């Protein structure tokens, strides 16, 4: 009763100070509720976007740590789809590229999309920016049609229906390899000593027989090994074909393991030497001219039509270009293969358990399964968001803490103003605990009103955040630009448990803030208080 009486609004000074304390608590709780809800919403939305196009589990064939492309990936994909929790399995093709629009160039990344997969197309469709780029589509069933990121569209100043040229780094590597070949001396000069030794071995060790010709296994290996070394040195194409023909002739030998003899047909030594003699007649300038002419098929970029633009965020790394699987394989130089198999799950958050189950039951060594949460990009994003959340909790909690200190100052003021009344209560027999409760109740009432009003106002701000953003943009102030966040309307997710914790902590801090002044009031001397000393 006394606590409520002291909080009577008609007591001007006390009421104003009390209201200031309530407003301080309210603002602290408001800031925490709004900011934490926005962070939760952004994390959920960005993860949802990621999970819309990345595989929930990436399945690579990497025996002994060496990654290999997959040609018959469909067979393994169908086998994986039989596991519980797996929605579908499809190809993974991604690489870097250079984009060109009328001479303006940018470097970026691309990812192939299996246009026959309804889930993959649906996930990409959900990411499209239909507000700024109406008419966007994810239907890439026809080759040379791509979907680009909004940041790429803005940098180039292009949109739906425009054309973009694509050139991958693989192309440039191939060009560099061709130029390196033109700088090499011809095989007849570079491997002159090895070729001469091979000819001597053929003349002295390759014997004609009634059934054909033969070599000992040791002499065969002494001839065969230098030719393999020549092939591994990546000679010019014509020279490579000549040496390959010589190796093919040797590969036709029948192996007599008992007698350690390699048997070949009649006239094989003469045929072999005739093949090697072709190396003496090659025209280096002509071979280099032909190689440089063939560069056109490597350096000519692929021209594609932009059929859609998706909303990209600078807070998360996403591909600059989505393209059909066939085009992605061509640009990545995979020749019909894929880099890995991407597994999509009914529940993406069970990726670790499903990956362990598939690995244990697959029964084939060499397969490496990586859940999405262990992919470097997603791992860094999760760590970044979590660190930012902790930092915002730390910073914004000081607002509530400062409000609690102001509550302590208010309660000290009240106890000083009410010291004569405290003296009267003590003279009438009031126990110290009763006096403490009077002022602690005041702090609890102020804390309750501050926490409840802060929660209510915070939920209201979250509800009308779109209107607030529009109003702020109308006056030229936009702290949450869509080109940075990737969202035209700031996402938010209210976690009821988190909101309750914020409110309870604010309430307890206010109650504790009133405890110290209440103890001083309870320990005051009644006689001195009544004398107004």
UniProtKB/TrEMBL annotation:
Ribonucleoprotein found in the keyword field: no
Localisation per UniProt entry: Cell membrane
Transmembrane segments: 12-39, 390-414, 435-462, 499-522
Domain MacB-like periplasmic core: 19-166
Residues covered by the ABC3 transporter permease C-terminal domain: 394-524
Keyword Ligase attributed: no
Record's keyword terms, sorted: Cell membrane, Membrane, Transmembrane, Transmembrane helix
Membrane association type: Multi-pass membrane protein
InterPro entries in alphabetical order: ABC3_permease_C, Lipoprotein-release_system, MacB_PCD
Record-stated family: Belongs to the ABC-4 integral membrane protein family. LolC/E subfamily.
Name of the featured protein: ABC transporter permease
Organism: Haloferula sargassicola
Lineage, broadest ranks: Bacteria, Pseudomonadati, Verrucomicrobiota, Verrucomicrobiia, Verrucomicrobiales
